[in-house]
Amino acid sequence: APAARLERLVVCVLLRHHDLAPEAAAAAISGVHPSQPLPSFWAAARKVRRWVQKQLQLGDLGDEDGADGGGYPGGANGHSPPASSELRDAALREQREQQICSRLMGRALFLVSNVAPAFGRPPTEAATAHGALVSGLAHG
Questions:
Q1: How confident is the model at residue 6 (pLDDT cuts 50, 70, 90)?
Q2: Per residue in 45-88, pLDDT tens?
Q3: How many CB atoms lie within 10 A of CB 8?
Q4: What distance in Å separates the CA atoms of residue 133 and residue 9, rounded to the nearest whole number?
Q5: How many CB atoms lie within 10 A of CB 23?
């Protein structure tokens, strides 16, 4: 789902900005509970994902036609909508989610790939950490 990819990308942006990709990789490999900034990065990314979900819900509320059963013929009589309409609604929801996330993902990818970290490391160590981060995004 686009919102899940956006959530992971936000974490990568924060790791890159704070130059903590090597520490995050070491914590993931060792299985040790990560230091304080890392869990807060995931919490921030979850907030972005929840925001996307909220935007989808607001869009869903705006799409309803009122109390007549959601615009389906016979909806007021308690009949369920046809399966093809449910599939169409799911496809439209996926498309809206992609539209909401695409601009944010573009900006986040720019930050990950083009903007230097706020805190410096020796150039070879920073290049190695950046390469691992970007290759992880390409396969995730």
A1: very high
A2: 999 999 999 999 887 666 554 434 444 444 444 555 566 888 88
A3: 16
A4: 10
A5: 16
Q: Is 66 left (phi over 0), alpha (psi -120 to 50) or beta?
A: left
Tokens of 45: 């990314």
Taking every pair of Cα atoms in the chain, the longest distance, rounded to a whole number of angstroms, is 69
CA-closest candidate to residue 14, choices 52, 48, 41: 41
Q: Which of 46, 39, 130, 56 is nearest to 100 (CA)?
A: 56
Q: In terms of pTM, does the model score above 0.70? A: no
Residue 114: CB atoms within 10 A of its CB come to 7
Select the more confidently predicted residue: 138 or 26.
26
Contact between 73 and 42 under an 8 Å Cβ cutoff? The reply is no
CA 40 – CA 130 distance, rounded (Å) = 21
Residue for token pair 């942006």: 13
